[in-house]
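Input (structure):
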């Protein structure tokens, strides 16, 4: 009888232990779920290098819901047209790119409704940046991107900045490597606040930045589909947006070798966006790409701007565009 009693107590203890572990696991999952905050459904986007291409692709695919884009050190929309050789040669240098073909492709995709109507771009606010010491992406590539969007957008909505002596990287007011240094984590102290410059163009009513004492929250990207994304990404939520709906949303796309897999949260923490977001009720979404040494080959963790996720990578149904759009929709839910 004593033996049975011991076995019973052991079984009860095991059940309680399993229940406790399960409850903790469920709590951890709940904490790492992207929250629904009742944010605006209209968003803005920005990105650098491969993330600059991705920002342009997101702006075009979802132009009905994207009010503006900042394209940093990246070439024209759809430049690669599914060809990695073209991506790494013509699209990086800007040489031999036929914008006429890209206009035609956009009209075809808009015509079959795989992207939003091109007329939506007329009112989009657009910002273009390339450091004058950038030895990676040529000035002709960034100029080509400007010319492509200028075919649709109103001139008064476009701003360019090409005179900062920055290498290929993300310029900040006071953080990072020397301005002309091209090295990981590709964040450069240029005494130039790119985050503030682009946000102040994308939004006309910005208040000065405030102190950012909160950390970006990690969340699980896996519920948003298989898009060659990392398991986890980050979102910065100002204190005022935790309890009140209606905050704006800005989506930031990192460059190659700038994902959290490569540099941790250094770009998330020091790009400068969070300070402006805190004082202007802007939620900043930082989706993250997964590095891969197998098919699809993506060893540097670049966003898909040449088609490694599929032939529809430019379209609303493209794996990465669709996944990030679902993230924005989740934030907008309540």
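Output (sequence):
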């Amino acid at each position: 009888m004593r033996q049975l009693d011991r076995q019973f107590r052991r079984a009860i203890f095991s059940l309680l232990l399993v229940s406790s572990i399960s409850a903790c696991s469920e709590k951890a999952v709940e904490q790492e779920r992207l929250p629904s905050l009742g944010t605006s459904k209209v968003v803005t986007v920005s990105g650098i290098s491969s993330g600059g291409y991705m920002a342009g692709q997101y702006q075009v695919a979802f132009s009905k819901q994207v009010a503006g884009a900042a394209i940093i050190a990246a070439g024209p929309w759809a430049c690669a047209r599914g060809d990695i050789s073209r991506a790494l040669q013509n699209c990086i240098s800007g040489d031999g790119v036929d914008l006429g073909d890209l206009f035609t492709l956009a009209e075809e995709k808009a015509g079959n409704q795989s992207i939003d109507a091109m007329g939506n771009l007329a009112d989009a606010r657009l910002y273009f940046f390339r450091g004058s010491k950038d030895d990676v992406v040529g000035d002709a590539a960034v100029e080509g991107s400007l010319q492509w969007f200028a075919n649709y957008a109103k001139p008064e909505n476009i701003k360019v900045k090409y005179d900062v002596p920055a290498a290929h990287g993300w310029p900040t007011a006071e953080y990072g490597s020397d301005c002309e240094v091209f090295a990981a984590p590709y964040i450069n102290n240029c005494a130039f606040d790119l985050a503030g410059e682009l946000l102040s163009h994308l939004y006309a009513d910005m208040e000065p930045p405030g102190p950012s004492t909160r950390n970006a929250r990690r969340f699980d990207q896996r519920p948003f589909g298989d898009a060659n994304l990392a398991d986890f990404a980050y979102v910065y939520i100002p204190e005022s947006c935790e309890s009140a709906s209606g905050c704006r949303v800005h989506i930031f796309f990192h460059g190659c070798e700038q994902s959290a897999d490569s540099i941790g949260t250094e770009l998330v923490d020091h790009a400068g966006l969070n300070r402006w977001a805190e004082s202007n009720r802007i939620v900043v979404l930082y989706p993250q790409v997964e590095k891969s040494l197998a098919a699809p080959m993506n060893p540097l963790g670049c966003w898909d701007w040449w088609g490694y996720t599929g032939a529809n990578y430019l379209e609303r149904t493209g794996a990465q565009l669709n996944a990030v759009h679902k993230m924005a929709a989740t934030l907008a839910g309540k």
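Notes: The longest strand covers residues 66-72. Residues 192 and 257 are 22 Å apart (CA to CA).
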